[in-house]
Design a protein that fits this description.
There is one protein chain. This protein has helices at 16-33, 47-50, 53-69, 83-92, 117-127, 144-161, 163-168, 180-188, 208-216, 221-234, 245-258, 274-288, 310-315, 354-371, 386-407, 418-428, 434-445, and strands spanning 2-4, 72-76, 107-111, 132-138, 170-174, 191-194, 263-268, 296-301, 320-329, 376-383. It is an alpha/beta fold. It has a 5-stranded mixed sheet with strand order 1-10-9-7-8, with helices on both faces. Strands 3-2-4-5-6 form a 5-stranded parallel sheet, sandwiched between helices. The longest helix is centred in the C-terminal third of the chain and has 22 residues, at 386-407. It is globular and about 60 Å long. The structure holds 5-phosphoarabinonic acid. 5-phosphoarabinonic acid (PA5) binds at residues 78-81, 138-140, 143, 146, 200-202, 286, 414.
């Protein structure tokens, strides 16, 4: 993995970056010493190096059992209990996985991440003639979206295959002792994995929250963890700023923020990375957006979105910067064919790989956007595979922890997420919300 700040540095006054570079060391040290805000949620910092082969084998065994029993596995979870697994699975699987009939792996589909009635009805209709299982993921065990989907799906599964077989096809990933999902699992006898107390949802992809669904989909979790372990070493407190990619990333984005760049756009040139940007947006948005501070994390898929958001990025308000995820080697090869009539005028590309065309689009766009006043951070990965994705995950986690401390917020809480829940429960008349219910109804009636 390589990071280049060459096209971002000219957008901040001389001296800014060296001041912030020093601040990254202090922030990184806080992650290590555990003396910063939210220090009871630092379990992710040394998580990769603490994962044993035996533990991975245990996860793999349960994954293999689900793979043998089910043609479809539903991953029910939301936010940090969903996005990491989806990001890795979508990056590794064929873009047409859902349409592939002859399969080595079960279909992995996702639920419990919305309250769309049509979505749930469509899913249950599709599942009617399928052998399915469920991985239900919720740290708190009480998240409405996930619990609601799980109630519907497990009821359906029990009707389809009976309680005993349903029990073998359900795995819960939740808190060690607390929450409704833990109690339900104990009562029903579901197999469970624990989300460690000191790892928050959005930092949990390298726990069974991500590892189990990734292994079920056929991903190599050992290689994923190996990549993360390498990046844990490469971003540690003993690695100086000049060699530490997480510190460099954190310094540059904070420098740009200080000078009015309040939106960071993650850019990819490979549609399989769409959900990686979704994962990243949650990680940074929920970690930094508080106390009326924080960079707004946005994302685009290029070149697709060059035909929609490209105009805004090139010429709109200059409050943005881009972080481009560049993949050096495509995994597949497609050569542009020669055409004797050349009516489409594309013979100048004949014999070239499609990836070369994509790379020139990427380079041309980067330069155009820099010329248009958009600072550009470039992050290069060798290819999309488990090892590189593991690096990618840990790099952005470490960068997030450092960045959040530099911004002066607690990157590990999310108090703002409760506001909508309080109103929703009040409106739905949840027991215990009587006073809120009265107040919100009076407000609406005004
Ligand atoms: O990062 C977070 O903490 C959140 O996004 C949670 O992961 C999300 O709200 C789901 O919570 P839970 O796992 O408790 O159902």
């Amino acid at each position: 993995m390589k990071i280049s700040l060459k096209n971002a540095a000219p957008f901040v006054p001389a001296g800014t970056l060296s001041t912030l570079a020093a601040a990254t060391a202090a922030a990184n040290e806080l992650l290590e010493s555990g003396k910063g805000a939210g220090n009871d949620f630092l379990g992710w910092v040394h998580l990769p190096s603490s994962i044993s082969d035996d533990f991975l084998a245990e996860v793999q065994t349960v994954a293999d059992d689900l793979r043998a029993r089910c043609e479809v596995v539903i991953v029910a979870g939301i936010g940090g209990s969903y996005l990491g697994a989806r990001a890795v699975n979508d990056a590794l699987l064929s873009s047409f996985d859902a349409q592939t009939a002859k399969r080595k792996n079960p279909y992995v589909v996702y639920a419990g991440n919305n309250i769309g009635e049509d979505y749930l009805a469509d899913l249950m209709e599709w599942l009617q003639d399928k052998q399915f299982g469920i991985i239900n993921i919720s740290k708190s065990g009480t998240t409405t979206e996930t619990a609601l989907a799980f109630r519907l799906l497990r009821t359906m599964l029990e009707k389809q295959v009976g309680k005993a077989e349903a029990c073998k096809r359900i795995v819960a990933v939740t808190d060690r002792a607390k929450g409704a999902l833990r109690s339900l699992s104990t009562q029903e006898g579901y197999r469970t994995f624990v989300i460690p107390d000191n790892v928050g949802g959005r930092f949990s992809v390298l726990t069974p929250v991500g590892l189990l669904p990734i292994a079920v989909a056929g991903g190599d979790i050992r290689a994923l963890v190996r990549g993360a372990q390498e990046m844990e070493k490469a971003t540690g407190v003993d690695v100086p700023y000049e060699q530490n990619p997480a510190c460099q990333y954190a310094a540059m984005r904070n420098a740009l923020y200080q000078f009015g760049k309040t939106t960071e756009i993650m850019v990819n040139y490979n549609p399989r990375l769409h959900y990686f940007a979704e994962w990243w947006k949650q990680l940074y948005g929920e970690s930094e957006g508080k106390d009326r501070k924080g960079i707004f994390p946005a994302s685009v898929d290029f070149t697709t979105d060059l035909h929609s958001m490209g105009q805004w990025i090139q010429d709109g308000q200059r409050t943005i910067f881009e972080t481009v995820i560049s993949i050096e080697h495509a995994n597949r090869e497609v050569i542009v064919p020669e055409d004797k009539d050349n009516l489409d005028g594309l013979n100048f590309l004949a014999g070239k790989r499609v990836d070369e065309v994509n790379k020139m689009a990427e380079l041309g766009t980067r330069l155009a956007h820099v010329d248009g006043g958009v600072p550009n951070i470039l992050i290069q990965f060798d290819r999309i595979d488990e090892y590189n994705l593991g690096q990618f995950i840990y790099f952005f986690e470490r960068g997030c922890g450092i960045s959040g401390y530099m911004l002066g917020v607690n990157p590990f809480n999310q108090p703002g997420v409760e506001a909508y829940k309080k109103n929703m429960f009040a409106l739905l008349g949840k027991p215990g919300y009587e006073a809120e219910s009265q107040a919100i109804r009076a407000r609406i009636a005004e």
